[in-house]
Amino acid sequence: MAVLTRRAAITVLTRRAAVTAVVAVTLLAGAGPARADDVRGGQQAVIKTLELTQAWRASKGAGVLVAVLDSGVDPRHRDLAGSVRVGKDFTEGANPPGTAPSRLHGTYMASLIAGHGHGLNGKQGIIGVAPEADVLSVRVILEDEEPGFREFNSAERFEHVVARGIRYAVDEGADVINMSISKELATREERAAIRYAISKGVVLVAAAGNEGDRKIDADFAPYSYPAAFPGVVSVGATDRRLKRAAFSNWNSSVLVAAPGVDIMGAGPGDEYWVGRGTSQATALVSGVAALIKAKFPDMSPPLVARALADSATDRPPGGYDTGTGFGVVNAARALSEAGELAHHTETARVGRVQDPAEPVAGGKGGPVKVITRDEQRVTAYTAIAAAAAAGALASLSVIFILVRRVRRAHSSQDA
Asked: In which element (H, E) is residue 48 found?
């Protein structure tokens, strides 16, 4: 078994567009080299948590195409060989001519989704959540050691690679799109691309982000896109105790969570990695979505999302929180829930769907009025109202007493 020892970590990548000066893509992975000789043994915690052995009795993802929008996938890795179709490279021109992409992060994610192992009966190497699914590799990011990294970060022509990658994957027949990538700001092009994908029945899964330690306030960590777009399954990461991992973003976009710490995966050149991040959690959830789409190919994206959420385990108190969403995804239960939902539909009538790339109501509705809750004013007005109520009661009491005295006086005179 080849074990990757080339470096100790996959560095976080941040791409900025020079013209707009906004974060465009962040690679969500922090990983170290695998040390265990038994790769499959290193996967047992994930297999148990997701109840994959039970799920595989119903579906292994056969017939489903999962697009991996990432840094590229090594189609020759022994655990992925025969399952990968190399699609378009939207980063072309950033690297000098003849430069081979490293494809580390993308291979890692693809293996978690659709790795089929190797050796006798595929008992060795990485087994993905949907081992019979196929992968479409769509390259939309560069890794930091690639020579074109700076060019990719700064050139305007690479600004909308994610939106273009989504549309390309849909047109190539993808059933599920995995996006273990993140950026801080939304764009109209990405909104429109996501709407296009959902209208075609494609399930989109994206990472909630690894900035959980960089919290905005006590209630949430930064939103990340494309995960925070409506219609996208936003995935948080859990630790070994199935609690929110310290790095995992928490906010109201998070739908579900999956294991994201010490996750075994494959690297290019028959290598293996152990890593952590919402990237890994996202890939696992994409695999579960692939199992559902294989069993119920006509199921709409909203229903797939509902099956993932309704069947989640380790639910937080109250049923939902911003850290792990509705809980930890469970493949076996998700397939069972999908079976219950299979005879339902959740679609909007033609002409009734708001285009996210356009202003609300076609721009005729005017600006949206934002109402804020001023806690100090609320407290002050409450105190004033309470004082007024107390004064009113006191006045009524005085009036009541005076009336009784008058009546007694009249009674004495009559006597």
From this structure: helix 44-49
Count of Cβ atoms closer than 10 Å to residue 339 Cβ: 14
**Where in the sequence numbering do the catalytic residues fall?**
70, 105, 279
β partners of residue 254: 234
Q: Is the pLDDT of residue 79 over 90?
A: yes
Taking the C-alpha atoms of residue 132 and residue 209, their distance in angstroms, rounded to an integer, is 28
> Kind of pairing, strands 203-207 and 233-238?
parallel
Give me 278's structure tokens: 């919402």
Which helix (H) or strand (E) is 124 found in, with range?
Answer: strand 124-127
Residue 110's nearest CA partner among 266, 245, 307 is 266
Residue 120 tokens, joined: 């006798």
CB 334 within 8 A of CB 288: yes
Band the pLDDT of 8: cuts 50, 70, 90. very low
Scan for tokens 């890794």, then name that residue: 143
Q: From residue 70, how far is each of 93, 161, 179, 293 by CA, in Å?
A: 16, 11, 7, 21
pTM: 0.79
| Closest among 6, 272, 4 to 124, alpha carbons compared | 272
